[in-house]
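[audit] Reproducing an earlier prediction to check determinism. Same input, same settings, fresh worker. If the tokens differ from the archived copy the diff job will pick it up downstream; this log only records the rerun itself.
[audit] input (600 residues):
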Amino acid sequence: MNIKHTLHIFAIPIIVFFGIGAYLLLNNIFHYRTIAIFLALILVVMGSWKMIVETVTAFLRKQFALDYIAILAILVSIFTGQYLVALVIVLMLSSGTQLEEYGMTKAQQSLTALSDRIPKEVMRLSTDDHTTKVAIASVVVGERILVRKGEVVPLDGVLESTTALTDESSLTGEPYMLDKLKGDQIRSGIVNMGDVMIVLVTKTDDESTYRKIIGMVQEAQQEKAPLIRLADRYSTIFTIITLVIATFAYLISHDIGRVLAVLVVATPCPLILATPIALFGGMNAAAKRRVLVKRLSALEVLARVTTFIFDKTGTLTLGKPTVTNIVMLDNSMDADHALQIAEAIERNSLHPIAKAIVDAAREKNSTQLSARDIMEETGVGISAIVEDVRYHISKMEQSHDINAVELKREGEIVARIEFEDTLKQDSTDILKEIHQLGVKIHIFTGDKKENAEKILLQLGDIREYLTLKADCSPTEKKDGVAALKAGGEVTAMVGDGINDAPALALADVGMVFSNEEQTAASEAADIVFLGGDLEDVKETIRIAKRTINIALQSIIVGIGLSIVAMIFAALGYIPAIAGALLQEAIDVAVILNALRASRG
């Protein structure tokens, strides 16, 4: 959102603010009272017409609202000639309204990065293999497209190239590169990590896997229940008390001035100011931990979440393969030597498995060997000459829940190097602490059930309190969140990938671990963790609860002081002007207390 657009949203509060200055000059300095009154009336109408329409709509629906008091205060202020009081009320309320609109506009932009991830144009191959750059929307089923290394596949299809290497973590969450062979299905949204691939298109842009995910995110955002603001829970009783005291003031005095004094003191600033200021403070406290709160009300909802749903890969786990075991199949060599040979071969490869092998060797401080005549072929593997012997590393065929590569010497298998995605160091403790808050915990993962359960075994006793749902597609994750919400749960979804985006958008609070590969996924969330530390989730919950406690303190104390002041105003001890000053003092007390939330 650019500065020009932001200024457009806040145009009315800005105009009213400078209009108040103009009113004071015209009325108090130049004594052009008629012009000043005319200007005040224009500003009041400009700043309050939207609020009046919404209040009338709420009244017709038989709903109470804080705006009843504000509108009544504005009308009485004008009736009694207190135009400055009316303008101050309008400025305060229009600013709050525009802040809400600003937040809604930001939320509506959440699909931008998801959509922008897919290129708008693609290279189309003709029957004679000539390439033409065309708009994706113009590509039809049966045509061929060319996808270069590092590019996102824009359309679903079938691989026509002999082999390909793809990164499908954005859709499945699994941190492994997948080898593809001619005839395999290729889904939009995945990344080509190998040589140029040719894809025979089987679905148009509107029907593609990735577009359906974006559609689910949009649908989920529309389904998300509107927030019942903290202040709204106290508005009905406060409105009734105010009207009762104002009526009492008139009945005992028949003085409209006392009524205005009551209404001015009752202008619901504590209710209006306490929550947003505390939430802004909470947002600041979270930012100090490199946690970005994109939707201000997310902290309010997070404080009362009853169920957390965690993605596994990249959220509870590191999200990358790690060497966990080396199985020797040749007694002439030990595991350390096999790892040294593998590290020499893989040292200059960009494959994630290669990085895992290199990292494992460095952790062991293994002696580095040199490799020459390195040959890497997508879908086949990598080979090199180490210690005057040709070795070859290739991916082992999937066997149950084992992810592994085989180290071969002159065609004979020497060792099997196994990999797993491992838990983050603090996962068990953090989940236990979150559970102790009285929160239910579910794990939704796109990983295979065997792999997911293997990871859960590392969680120890806490796994008894978890509900696991494996092999989840983006649709199934979203449906799982919807089912929990339908059961009355207030939900928070914690994920890190585009495959989590629909569930993140639908959950009452979406929380995402952002990283370089999955920044687009963060657009569907309300809270973004810039680091990978799971403790940030626990700390954000703590910040949210503390923030709302402070907001509640401010609201209750502010209401209490306002009620006391209203009673004195009704009895004639506080005139309207003094009431306005007193209300300002109450507001300052509320603001100072609410600002404590920024200390985290």
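[audit] rerun output stored. Observation attached for the diff report: Residues 516 and 530 are 10 Å apart (CA to CA).
[audit] end
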